[in-house]
Specification:
InterPro entries: DASH_Spc19. It contains 5 helices and no strands. The chain is an all-alpha fold and about 170 residues long. The longest helix has about 50 residues.
């Protein structure tokens, strides 16, 4: 009986060993199931490792030389457009200031001027009335032109100052 107990212990030990072996095989199987994907990843990495550093540096320099002029051109265009927009903004601000100045004129001055013009117009008749109206319109147009030219001079001075600052 002792030999049968001894055989039973051996069988139990063998079964236990088989279970550990099956568990180890299962663990290994889970660990290597991703090998096909890993092989592809490692091949890609190996591919890049095969390219020498000098070849990569030469390719980078070539690409930089090819792209640099275009980048510089685009940056200069962007700078020019930005300057153009800034000048336009300054011009619009100047025009707005001019218009505000015209609107801010005291109403009394305008009313007095209109009244004086009406009195003058009453005294004039026919062709003289038309000439007076044309002269007033020409005077107003010239005044507006002078104001516009003054603003343009101011704008040009600003642009010149900006250019000299750079």
């Amino acid at each position: 009986m002792s030999s049968s107990a001894s055989y039973a212990d051996c069988v139990t030990s063998l079964r236990s060993s088989l279970q550990f072996l099956e568990s180890s095989v299962q663990t290994l199987d889970n660990g290597v199931s991703d090998f096909p994907r890993l092989v592809k990843v490692l091949k890609t990495v190996r591919h890049y490792e095969l390219v020498s550093h000098t070849t990569l540096a030469a390719a980078e320099a070539s690409l930089r030389d090819e792209i640099s002029p275009y980048i510089s051109l685009l940056l200069s265009r962007a700078d020019a457009q930005t300057e153009r927009q800034e000048r336009r903004i300054e011009t619009l601000k100047a025009r707005a200031g001019l218009q505000q100045g015209r609107l801010a004129r005291p109403a009394g001055q305008e009313a007095a001027r209109s009244a004086a013009q009406k009195l003058k117009a009453r005294k004039l008749h026919g062709e003289d009335k038309l000439r007076a109206k044309a002269v007033r319109q020409r005077r107003d147009a010239l005044r507006y032109g002078v104001e516009r030219l003054e603003l343009e001079v101011l704008q040009k001075e600003r642009e010149l100052r900006k250019r000299l600052e750079i």
